[in-house]
Structures are given as C-alpha cells and as structure tokens.
Write a structure and sequence with these properties.
This protein is α/β, with parallel strands linked by helices. The protein has two domains: 275 residues, no CATH class; 95 residues, no CATH class. The chain has a seven-stranded parallel beta sheet, sandwiched between helices. Strand 8, helix 16 and strand 9 form a beta-alpha-beta unit. Helix 5 packs across helix 9 and helix 5 packs parallel to helix 19. It is globular and about 65 Å long. It starts with 13 loop residues before the first helix and ends in a 5-residue tail after the last helix. The N terminus is likely disordered.
Amino acid sequence: MKMETYNCKDTINPVQDNYERYLSNVYNKLYKDPENAGKERDRSIIYVPYRSFSEKLKQDCPNIHFTNLDSSEISKAVSHADVIINIARGEEVVEAEVGYPDRNVELPVESIANTEMVSDLYIQAIESGNENIQVVHTGRMNNKTIAMATAMPILGELAGIDYDNVIHTPEVDLKRLIDKKQLDIKTMIEEIDINPELSEMKVCTRALKRIYSAHNVDFEKATSSELIDVLLDEYNKYPRISTSTLMKEQMLENVADQLLKAGKSADKVREIIDELDVHTDEEPDSVDTVTNFTNSIPMILANKLVRDGYSADEVGLMSTEQKMELLADSEMTAVIVADTAHMPRVMWLADYLMPDNFKLIFIESRTGLSEDMLQKSMEREERSFGLGSNWLSNQMRTRNPAKVGEKADKAYWGDKSISNKKLNDKINEQKLIK
C-alpha cells in the first residue's frame, strides 16, 4: 500500500508524516453517528502520543486535546477515571512450557509495553486516592484460529476427554489418547453431516473442512489417520491461553515490583495486589478490536452500577442497553492504552462504540518499534481502519455496542454457531460412532 506524504513542514520524518496523515484521516471519522446522519456528537478526547507531533496535526484535529503524560490534565483524569483499558495486540504461539501445556503463548512487544504503561497509570491512580479504579485487559486471537477453536469438541471426542480439558493435556498425551481410542474421524464427520439430530454440530465439520482445505488436504481421499495428523498439526499452532490472562499476570508482577522498589512493605504490597486482582477484568479472546470494545463495555458498565449500589445479581440480569440507559447521565472516564500504530483505529472505535457519557483519554505506550516495523504496522492498521469504518458505519449502521457485537460474532463465527459447551454436550448425548 503506497502512502501519500502528509507534508508536515515541521517534521522531517516520513514515518511521522504518514502517521499524522493517518490520524488526520481517522479524525475526520470521529463524532459521527450513522443513525443520526449529519449530526455530530460532542465528546471530550485527550490524547497523549508517544512520539512528538506537529502543529499542523493539532490544527487538523481541533477537538482533540494533545498533551503530555506528566500534564495536570492526565493527573486529574487518572485520579477520577473509572477504568483503564489495556488493548492487546495479537499473540505469538510458542512451544508450551514443560508441565503447562496451556501456556504456549507469548505477548508481543506492543502488549508488553501497553501493560507496562497500564501498570504505571494504576499506581498513579491509587496514589491519588482512586483505589477502586477498574482495569480491563482485552484478549486477542488471530481469525485464522477460529476454525480450530470451533473444532475443539471434535478433538476432545477423538481423545475421549471434554473439550475444555484438551488445552490442559500435553500434546504427547493427547496423541496417545487418540491412538488408544481409535475413532474414525471420517465416519464421525459423515455421521454428523447426515444425521438431522446432529445438525447443530455441522459447525464443527465445516470448521474441520476449512482446516483441511487450508492444508491442501483432500478430505475424500485422505485416510482417517492423515486427517487426524493434520488436525493435531493445526492444534499445535493454536493459542491455548488468553492474552488478557498473560497481561493481567504481567501487570500484577509489574505493580508488585514497582511498589517493592519504592519501599512498600511486602504485606502492604500483597494487600494492594489483592485489591488490584479484585478490580481487574479479563475480556475473552476477541478476533478484532471491534469485539474488544463490545465485550468490554458491558463489564465496565456493570462495574460502575455495582459501585453505585446495585447488586451484582441484579446487574447480571441487565442487558447492555439497560446498563447504558441507567448510566446515561453519569459522567464516566475511560483511560485507554494502545501502541502508536494501533492508536488511531482504537481512538475511532472507542469514540464510535463507547457510550457518549464517557470522557476518553488515549495514552500511547512506549513500544519503541523500529521505523520500518512501525511503518508496516501502521499500514496494516490503516487497511483495517478502512475496512472497519465501512463495515460499522455503512453496513451495520449502528453504534449500539450490543448490536455491533452480535453482528460481529455472526460475521466471524457464523449465523448458526453455538458454544463449544453446547457442542460438547451434544457429542455426549449422541453415540457418534457405532
């Protein structure tokens, strides 16, 4: 993708010029509402870039208040914030740790840097007296892993274990269990495809066939053994722990280390970490940043309602729309941390999806990517922004996070998708192999 030059007279860095052009393009999409065309919304947005910025960028984005991390505006915002949102960036699948078959994911440098920034902001918040601030870590999964995620109940059946135990089983043991049970996967798939009582499970067989197609394997010609080997090969590349869990663990460690170095006693640090754990939420793995927000918003609203005196049981029965309505007149502040390349798209999505009673504070992490890596990352993000803004604004045509989340889930997982738990229950109800 060739990127035009932004022509910032007070910058001489082409990567910086491209970033500012990209952010200016995103700015032109802010404050819009497809359900109220022509009527712009009003929203307080404060932005702390990691890199420097030109006067031209400030002029092109007049409603964004640019500032520094140590400014009085940020100190005030953090001291009053309701939530800090840690935006994840993908995952890196590695060989699982010995004895921990589910720990086969490492955080990329962007997520590590984001978590470091969130840790710093949390300490700043509690030191200012904001001890009940919520922290939400988002999760990410590559959309290429959707097929394997959907096929997990079948893999569990092949091994003779429930789907949720698969990720806790070492690969060598999984292979041994499959060899011992000796199920014919081709017969299983054919039984599901022709049995009307198992129609809901066709999402599994479609997922399996997508996996085989991606591996250039002819399902009709391959043996059952060959099909199982391909499935296991795909499973070996499947992320078995959420980035949100890893970021939460990293933050707990970061905060504890910083407090101990600052001279806090071990007992006091333990008390603070326990409180942080209580006020931390992990968003389930999302395929993209859209669902990062649609999954996180209900948790943030629920947390606020509980703080306002509603019971957790009462809030648990509320829809997202009901939560939004109850809090419509309550001014709330969200501090959102993302890396430089990701931030413009994050800014647009947050403004588009977060209820209008939220003030938004955007703080870039100290990722420190090379100029070449930053440029490539920006190009990917700008392409995603173009596709996403068209998808949400022109196709979904709604800002309602519940409706957007539902439509996004259907787009990624399919109209007739059901949970793996229900699929697993279906398998246990039926004798698939006679």
